[in-house]
Amino acid sequence: MKTLYLRRKELAESGKKLRSTDENYLSLAENMLFEEFAFALDIDRSEVVEYIEKHIA
Asked: Whole-model pTM?
């Protein structure tokens, strides 16, 4: 997940995009991770990103 995220960021800086297969795998991995966080933290899945950003900063 980290590798694909960094690759997407690198490509975006040069005006390019990830291949659709890589984008699909990244999306699947993010969804699975966010579901795990939501379950472990007993919060709604839609609140996970906000929760992480709030507690990291």
From this structure: 0.78
